[in-house]
Amino acid sequence: MNDASASLRHCRPFWQFWSARVLLTAGFQILTVAIGWQVYALTGSALDLGLVGLLQFLPRVLLVLVTGVVSDRFDRRRVVAISLFIQSLAALTLLLGNLGMGWQVSRALIFALSVVVGCCRAFDMPAMQSLLPNIVPPRLLGQAIAMAASANEAATIIAPALGGFLYAVGAELTYGLSAACFLACLVLVSLLPSSRVLPTGQRVSLDSLLMGVRFIRSRPDILGAISLDLFAVLLGGATALLPVFARDILLTGPWGLGLLRSAPAAGALLMSVWLMRHPIRRRSGHIMFAAVAVFGLATILFGLSRSFPLSLLALMLLGSADVISVVIRGTLVQLETPDDMRGRVNSVNSLFIGASNQLGEFESGVTAAWLGTVPAVVLGGAGTLLVVLLWMRWFPQLARRDQLVSSPETV
């Protein structure tokens, strides 16, 4: 193990952060599996699966400027804690509804709570991302981001599969576990140290709200990296359709859906472990574009597969390619952004991530309703390959980028 990894191993605050990321991701993934299966069971509509993603994404668009300023002006730990508490209440509402404690779980209730969860994630994502550079020194940040990514993937491997199995026993168990994960994460985040000085005497103005957008526009490499992820995953994302593949194409039940949702994370976890030991130091642009192209090819393979093992393998390949892009983009954004602007920049970045995921789910649902499930996924994978070619032409400096961090003085 290299010196950086050894140093991180003895950094207690980082492992508190890592554990909190595991619990946060687990809580959200378990909630997503349960909501996806339940809304499809209630309506049988692929479009409704896409609408859930859209309703979770829209608050990020509407609140993107506000959430960044909140993350930069207030204690980021408190911002995350409040968000987690509200998400736990959303999960408990669905738990009580499935128990028949005064109300029934309906399509309208799921949609309403999806908006609530979307609002919470609009605040907690930029705040959580901005906490990491305050916990570890800049020289360890690349490895820390890879290890933090492994936290997401570890949770995404175990949590959806566990959620699927528990849902087969009782939906209330799944929602209860989700709420417990959110509350445990709240405790860990509250115990993290704070090493940043909060700004005082600064007025909130339109200029300060737009500062993150202007910063990203002034950095072509950052703009190219986060927009590449936006459009590639927007077109290539098929996760919203996994309930359709599990029930109607691959002929499995909730347990199969859980395994399908876990497969991309399994591949991503293996790749993130590799990146911890072998960080990307050269040819970062070429590696990122190649990884996104593999993501598109794996999406096409998944769409065409009728074999459950082959589908799992395609999703693992998809996840391993995606985490390479995540680590490169995350390191680039965090190291080249001043701390007093990280909240606003990460807010815009999380909007792009949300667009690629939640809005991508809506796009997949609409396309599947129009063209059919398999054509929608295959067409999306082909669209990802087209995006790679266009971005290599439009952002040639990013494609030729060698060292990941070219401006150490900004750290």
Automatic annotation (TrEMBL):
**Gene Ontology molecular functions:** transmembrane transporter activity
Instruction: Give the UniProt entry's GO cellular component terms.
Output: plasma membrane
Superkingdom as given in the UniProt entry: Bacteria
Task: Keywords in alphabetical order, please.
Answer: Cell membrane, Membrane, Transmembrane, Transmembrane helix, Transport
The answer to whether the entry has keyword Cell membrane is yes
* Entry membrane topology: Multi-pass membrane protein
Task: Kindly list the residue ranges recorded as spanning the membrane.
Answer: 21-40, 46-67, 79-99, 144-167, 173-193, 222-246, 258-275, 287-308, 368-391
Among SUPFAM superfamilies, the record links this protein to: MFS general substrate transporter (SSF103473)
Q: Tell me which CDD domains the record gives.
A: MFS_MefA_like (cd06173)
Please state where this protein is localized: Cell membrane
Q: Give all residue intervals belonging to the Major facilitator superfamily (MFS) profile domain.
A: 1-196
Question: Has keyword Cell membrane?
Answer: yes
- Name-wise, this protein is MFS transporter
